[in-house]
Design brief:
Elements (H helix, E strand, L loop, with lengths): L18 H19 L4 H14 L1 H4 L3 H4 L6 H18 L2 H11 L5 H16 L4 H18 L8 H11 L8 H13 L15 H17 L1 H4 L10 H4 L6 E6 L10 H8 L4 E7 L2 E4 L12 E5 L2 H6 L6 E5 L4 H4 L7 E7 L12 H8 L2 E7 L2 E3 L13 E6 L1 H8 L4 E3 L13 H16 L5 H14 L7 H4 L3 H20 L1 H13 L4 H18 L2 H18 L4 H11 L11 H5 L8 H27 L2
Antiparallel strand pairs: 1-4, 1-5, 2-3, 2-4, 6-9, 6-10, 7-8, 7-9
Helix pairs in contact: 1-2, 1-22, 2-22, 5-10, 5-20, 5-22, 6-7, 6-8, 7-8, 7-9, 7-11, 8-9, 9-11, 10-25, 10-26, 11-28, 19-20, 22-25, 23-25, 24-25, 24-26, 24-28, 25-26, 26-28
GO biological process, one term: potassium ion transport
Main location: membrane
Keywords: Membrane, Repeat, Transmembrane, Transmembrane helix, Transport
């Protein structure tokens, strides 16, 4: 077994810098700029890459058939099937039940709470896509924090990070692993040491990473994370919306008597949103436009600082006070529940400007506050453009929250009062997943076939309805894979990857092999922070393999380093979608991720590289 201290013996021959190489590197640069700036949605960028590569076929070598080959690629179809299987498991409520049971023993002890989070999240993420796992567990963890008088800020980043390290336990833990396996198999035609990954190819190293990362999250992370959200925080206080909510009564003779909520909204102005109507003792939360009003009804409205002053002079209404706390705004939880909604990855809200009245009509929930990119928007929320991870403070009837908890547009940040799960289907869903893993692990059939068979089995047994198949898929990931796969082929076939590898060898080839391996790990981790993890493995695995051969090292070790590093986006909220999901509910700032993530990234970089050297040699 190599010690990793062997210096390069034979220099890598300098590849020719052809026009083809320059064109492909130009396309790579374009992709990086678009991914970093997010001028276009990630799936649109992926489609653009296909068009550019095919249009430049004389230099890229990507003909139309190869350009669209990513849609039929084994990695793409496998990821699609695994996303559906994860959706089937989530419909049974199994993940939430696991989270609740693991948290039941934790009580108010923060270390026990973190142990419960890591123990429930990491192993599960080894077999299910971690994006829905985190989405399902955010409300569970938030409730655990509230019951245990712990700040949610202490627990939510560890939830996201635990899911990321757990994804390295098996081949199907993340879409990145599946894509890396496909690239490794393709490069195996050139490098004998490379091959398609088996189900448990790197599980032994994954266990080490999970144990080390878990210990860090349990014993260190809570010291580094500030209490951005106080324990059991009052939402009105936390979102600072008390000054923007007012009660106005419909006075005798008012033109609003006999009118509707829609008429009131039009009369009071576009900046004023009616979030409740109190009729005698009945309270209508998030009322529809057609709701009729009577004399003496009280309208609870949400507006901005300037518009709230105009209510004193508004015709037909009289200000009668303001709610000072959650309890005053929602005296009975059966009438309206205050909670947070997180804009999800595939939400129709992404890129839309917030229109509270339209939101109320479409989703049945009244918007009271907004956190955008982690920053509190206390005053004027109308017209704010929404993005993934933005968090809306809303009030909605319990039935509406039950419906929203099953929606793909938002993640409800507290457990709905009456969740509807197919709990009776949980044993069937688990049996199907075990079958999928077993068939692939025993190499009876490839993971692609076993995963598709599992999808069919979930529909036949009623775990999933046929129309739910499409809702379970994160289509932006599918389009991203389809777009970056031909880019990877162009890198390999034109010699651009070999040229980049030569530059690496020229600058770092004199270093010990183990250090070069560590540098690839670090470089991948940093690139993953600003572009997709799937894009980073497509760009770096061919370069890493060629560089390894150039310095006389084991290319499989370098492929492993890139694969593991691509799933460690710990330095900021934008590198991994699960980080965005906890951004708003935790009240985090960008620096909070770096504060707790940088030491973890450094620790795991050392552990992983040493582990690779131990298990596979370098």
């Amino acid at each position: 077994m190599s010690t990793g201290l062997v210096l390069a013996q034979e220099p890598l021959a300098q590849p020719e810098l052809t026009t083809d190489v320059l064109v492909v590197l130009g396309v790579v640069l374009l992709a990086l700029v678009l991914f970093v700036t997010e001028r276009l949605p990630i799936d649109v960028t992926a489609l653009l890459l296909i068009v550019v590569l095919v249009v430049l076929e004389p230099w890229t070598g990507i003909d139309p058939a190869t350009g669209i080959s990513g849609f039929a690629n084994e990695a793409t179809i496998t990821v699609l099937a695994m996303l559906i299987l994860s959706g089937g498991i989530s419909r049974t409520g199994l993940v939430q039940e696991l989270g609740r049971r693991m948290a039941a023993f934790a009580g108010g002890n923060i270390r026990k709470q973190l142990v419960a989070i890591v123990a429930a999240t990491s192993p599960t993420s080894g077999f299910l896509n971690n994006t829905p796992i985190v989405a399902l567990l955010v409300p569970v963890v938030t409730d655990v924090a509230n019951r245990g008088n712990t700040s949610p800020s202490k627990l939510l980043i560890p939830l996201s990070y635990a899911s990321q390290v757990g994804g390295m336990l098996t081949l199907i833990g993340t879409s990145t692993n599946i894509l890396a396996s496909d690239i490794s198999a393709r490069l195996g035609e050139e490098y004998a040491e490379l091959h398609r990954f088996s189900m448990f190819e790197f599980t032994q190293l994954g266990i080490v990473v999970v144990l080390v990362g878990g210990l860090y999250l349990v014993f260190v992370s809570h010291y580094l994370l500030p209490e951005r959200v106080p324990p059991r925080a009052d939402y009105l206080e936390e979102y600072e919306v008390g000054d923007y909510i007012a009660d106005v009564a419909i006075v005798p003779g008012s033109p609003l008597v006999g009118a509707t909520v829609g008429d009131a909204s039009d009369s009071l102005g576009p900046e004023i949103d009616v979030v409740q109507v109190v009729h005698h003792r009945d309270r209508s939360v998030a009322p529809r436009r057609e709701t009729h009003l009577e004399e003496g009804d009280v309208l609870v409205v949400r507006t901005d600082r300037d518009a709230i002053r105009t209510l004193e002079d508004a015709a037909g209404v009289e200000p009668v006070g303001r709610p000072e706390s959650d309890a005053e705004l929602s005296p009975e939880s059966s009438e309206g529940v205050l909670t947070e909604l997180i804009v999800s990855l595939d939400s129709q809200l992404v890129g839309e400007r917030l229109d509270p009245e339209r939101f109320r009509e479409e989703f049945g929930a009244a918007v009271l506050g907004l956190r955008s990119h982690g920053e509190l928007v206390a005053d004027r929320i109308v017209g704010k453009r929404l993005d993934v991870g933005d968090t809306l403070l809303v009030q909605a009837p319990p039935d509406t929250l039950d419906r929203l908890s099953r929606s793909d547009d938002v993640i409800v940040a507290r457990e709905p009062p009456r969740p509807e799960y197919r709990a009776d289907k949980a044993p069937i869903a688990v049996a199907i997943m075990i079958g999928v893993v077993a068939v692939a692990a025993l190499e009876i059939y490839p993971i692609l076939i076993s995963a598709i068979a599992g999808v069919v089995a979930m529909v036949v047994t009623g775990v999933l309805d046929p129309n739910e198949l499409y809702d379970a898929v994160e289509w932006d990931i599918i389009f991203l894979l389809a777009g970056v796969i031909p880019l990877g082929i162009a890198l390999e076939q034109t010699g651009a990857a070999a040229y980049l590898a030569f530059l690496v060898v020229q600058t770092a080839g004199f270093l010990p092999t183990l250090l070069v391996l560590w540098l690839f790990y670090v470089a991948t981790g940093l690139i993953t922070e600003v572009i997709s993890n799937n894009a980073s493995v497509v760009l770096l695995i061919p370069v890493a393999a060629a560089a390894a051969v150039g310095i006389g090292a084991n290319p499989f070790a370098f492929v492993m380093a890139v694969t593991f590093a691509a799933s460690t986006a710990f330095l900021g909220p934008i590198g991994y979608q699960t980080n965005l999901f906890v951004y708003g509910p935790g009240g985090y700032r960008f620096s909070d991720y770096f504060r707790v993530g940088a030491p973890l990234q450094l620790l795991l970089s050392i552990v992983t590289v040493l582990g690779i050297a131990f298990f596979w040699g370098v």
